[in-house]
Amino acid sequence: xxxxxxxxxxxxxxxxxxxxxxxxxxxxxxxxxxxxxxxxxxxxxxxxxxxxxxxxxxxxxxxxxxxxxxxxxxxxxxxxxxxxxxxxxxxxxxxxxxxxxxxxxxxxxxxxxxxxxxxxxxxxxxxxxxxxxxxxxxxxxxxxxxxxxxxxxxxxxxxxxxxxxxxxxxxxxxxxxxxxxxxxxxxxxxxxxxxxxxxxxxxxxxxxxxxxxxxxxxxxxxxxxxxxxxxxx
Length: 233
Ligand code: DC
Hints:
Layout: E1 9-14, H1 21-32, E2 35-38, H2 40-52, H3 60-68, H4 83-92, H5 96-111, E3 132-137, H6 140-144, E4 150-155, H7 158-170, H8 178-194, E5 207-210, H9 216-231
Parallel strand pairs: 1-3, 1-4, 2-3, 4-5
Helix pairs in contact: 1-9, 2-3, 2-4, 3-5, 4-8, 7-8
2'-deoxycytidine-5'-monophosphate (DC) binds near residues 17, 90 and 138.
């Protein structure tokens, strides 16, 4: 097993699709000058690589090979936020070989956060050294960084999450129905939480943040004292 040793503070954020974890993670990264990794973009990237080559995301062997050779630069500028890529990402994420291939990349990022990567990967933009790292995904607190001193499980009702995701996507596709997005969210929740390998689950020591009725400012205010306490150690 990989040794978990790091000199920087790790914040692990998990939760279902469209719960607000990415927005919260970016806010933490910006305000505390932490590096940031959106681990969903890795699974989306693998899915995008397969789809762009006309390969079925259910093709386990090709998906694993794609994950083994994956590099974030490959998807620079690619539109990985679409509904199709999201659904395919959830399929490749249930593939053990893909998860194993992406695990070392994520642990390495957590242990040696880059000092000046682009915002998708890190928020560090000034010359100041990063003070920590925040990763968001589904299994960060349970599998990728179980040693993280601060774990957050960010969730919201499926209706609220579907509404948020629909608002994000409808400007590009005005005919999109909110009911279809709700169905997508329910299918992804079932696949992400029901898979055998590293399913979405709240770590026992994670703090629960329900954003159904919380603004990003309110969610950030709720976690600030937890981060401040760790920074003072
Ligand atoms: O957070 P997102 O919607 O960008 O994630 C896309 C898919 O990737 C999601 O359906 C589940 C998967 N994923 C995962 O299994 N483990 C992670 N750490 C991050 C994402």
